[in-house]
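idk why but the lab printer keeps eating my pages so im just putting this in chat instead. protein + beta-D-glucopyranose:
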Amino acid sequence: MARGAYIESGGRQYEGNVTAFVLITCFVAAMGGLLFGYDLGITGGVTSMEPFLVKFFPVVYQQMLDDSSTNQYCKFDNQLLTLFTSSLYLAALIASFFAATTSRLFGRKPSMFLGGLFFLVGALLNGFAVNVEMLIIGRIFLGFGVGYCNQSVPIYLSEMAPAKIRGALNIGFQMMITIGILGANLINYATSKYKNGWRVSLGVGAVPAVLLCVGSLFLEETPNSLIERGQHVKAKTMLQKIRGTNNVDEEYQDLVDASEAASKVENPWKNITRRRYRPQLTFCSFIPFFQQLTGINVIMFYAPVLFTILGFGNDASLMSAVITGGVNVIATLIVVGIMIGMKFGLNGEGSFNKGEADILLVFICLYVAAFAWSWGPLGWLVPSEICSLEVRPAGQAINVAINMFFTFGIAQVFLSLLCHFKFGLFFFFAAWVLVMTIFIAFLLPETKNVPVEEMHYVWKSHWFWNKYMPECEDLVAGAYNNSEAAPSN
Ligand code: BGC
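predcted complex ->
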């Protein structure tokens, strides 16, 4: 097909249907998001539970009791406590690089399985913790689990899905994240009434972990990964199965071409820094950075603490977290609904009074909803689909690592920044939202309907990125090797 026609038509269309097999497979894989979500939602609530603080952070607890200041902004500013929350994200950051190698050499499935296993060990260590050491080691295992899952699941979904519903299927990951968060908020609400309730909150993380471990044993590997590891016959059979037709020759050939080109790459990490991968490197780095600078995790982690600051009682604070968690799920669900619908048609000092606090809650809900409609799902979808095979695991690892780094950073410094910048901090996040909106509007091309292994045409036809692209024929002919006559690095 002529290149221009290809771009105008929104991409090459392969034959194939949306099969029940692919839908079930993607549903099981997306459960990886539950793990991440569960942890995001559980931590803030647990660290606001008195018996937990008394047992593991008595100094922090005492400090809170002794704090007679009326400055609400600084009430919870304690580095040790925030380190408990944020340490997991550092572990996830490191694990995502190992996960990239596991996914490339052994496939996406083993990465998901390992993710579930690490998370299981972490949840058990935390649920049965008798000292801070057990708690922290558990957090590190949980972090490894999140790193492995977040690296492999979005890639898995983007590779399995037919191009025309890739967005909808990939959003399943975000959907599971939000369900995990809401589930955790509800469990915290229930367990906070009991002395050892925090054990249940932390230990229940084992449930999504077991679901993922068992689920991943039944999953099939993606055709892209099978071809990448030389299992061509199996890959073709798999492609026929997931597309529900025997006529997959064209798509299969494109996957083989992409894989041959990828196999010539000696070092995927070095490769992604080359000039021709500038758009991929840019988006895999900036999307997670911007996603976190929306400030979403201020709400996800600290909603109970924030609501306490705003004058809600303890119980009401946990309940409000449940409300924001619920909005997150519903708003994400609506996105999925719209996408499927479009595709298939019919087929400082003082406190707020109650009224003001309710209005604020409505605004926070609007904000969470806006996130769930935009940066939430797209933060995981876009990086997983824009990288060609040879740099995909590396690109996704960069995405996860940067995401985790800023998740860590925000978890770690938010309470302290709030203490110093007061309400100005919210304007800080608002300014970032403006910057990222402009960035995306001008620089991110539409990827809808374009098969993942055909994405280079999209860059080639973009007003800004085209100058970084060598001729498309070079790309398709497998000129990814390091000796090619590509534009200078
Ligand atoms: C983000 C998380 C966030 C969650 C909220 C995810 O996409 O990566 O940091 O807590 O969305 O729904």
